[in-house]
Fold Rad50/SbcC-type AAA domain-containing protein.
Amino acid sequence: MLNFCKLEVHIKAYCGDSPGDIRDFGRIVKLDKGLNVIIGDNTKGKTSLASCFYYILGMEELMSPKRDVDSLDRCLKVSFIWRDSSTGKEKTWYVDSSYVEAEIKNGSGKRVLLHRDIKNDSINANKISISNLNNEKWEHPNEYFLHSRDDNNQSIDFAFYGFLANFAGINLPTVPVRNSDKESVLYLQTLFALCYVEQTRGWADYFATIKGYNILRPKQRIIEYAMSLAIDAEYETKQKLKEKRDNDKTTWSFEVKNLKDILSCNNFEVLDLEDNVEKQKTNIDTLKIEYIGKNGLDIDHRLCELKEKIEAYELNKKEVIQKRTPEDRKLIETYQKHKQIYDQ
């Protein structure tokens, strides 16, 4: 179990006409266990605030195809318009630095503080700092990595998603993946789609924002997990066989095309060989290679033709040699001697 206790968004910004006047902006939202509702007029920052809940948990890919700070609104990282209550004028303020913090609690009551930068001079958006609570004081933070290999590994120190899963008491199972006999961990980002429905991505599907990560049928996987159901092994076997069939069809088409190209370069072709294996009716052991342009002459007959031509050539050669006169032989001997000299 995982509960938010508090979310803080901190922004330091300056007005365009007063770059030296840096002021503090942001929101501090305290949350209770149960239903919490964020209410406000349009363009008042509800979506921006909601995006910070996902950014601090490394789940920003559920909001946007982009990752890291690219998924956040401009007001958190670039600029925003703010009305000065003393003058009543609206001015554009430019973000100098910003970050988000959240205090979260698990089922056993343990609390930790998460910190993730949005904009600063040395930002590393692939890191989240975590502080433990000790005697009502936050300890020195440790950095955890995310959006990198093994970030879901629950046995590796400082893997953020692995830490978050352990903290929330979530045991990530292994599930089948596409085009492989291997299995993959059910990523926490995929599982998180169970508790996030975003209107801006449409209501056509409750899991419109799900990230599959090459997992086979990810929507079914997270429902099975939520309902403590075992993976349908028979169905998965069927799906893997289907994928193998599709791969075999692709391989067949590729190999047949290569074979036909090679034969065509030598004026040969294979009769009754189909590019689509599903249309292949003739047994491949009975296929014949034929010489193009000889009315269906197969390769054996073509070889016989070539052998006959060679034999005829040798016979003509013998007849020519037998008809040579002494003068012819003398001229040939002279030519061969001169040829040896010239060749040297």
